[in-house]
Task: inverse folding
């Protein structure tokens, strides 16, 4: 599920994204907030896609 910080400029989709994990609970909102995907989550997604192609 996508989430973002009210104070941030990007949204996140992976719980293992360390940038997303630093969002304090009171600032964390569900959805994208109309913000682009964070670069760390993009990298995680690319790695996951590569792993699927290997199988």
Result:
């Amino acid at each position: 599920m996508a989430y973002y910080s009210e104070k941030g400029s990007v949204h996140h989709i992976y719980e293992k994204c360390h940038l997303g994990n630093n969002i304090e609970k009171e600032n964390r909102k569900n959805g994208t907030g109309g913000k682009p995907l964070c670069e760390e989550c993009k990298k995680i997604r690319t790695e996951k896609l590569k792993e699927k192609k290997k199988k």
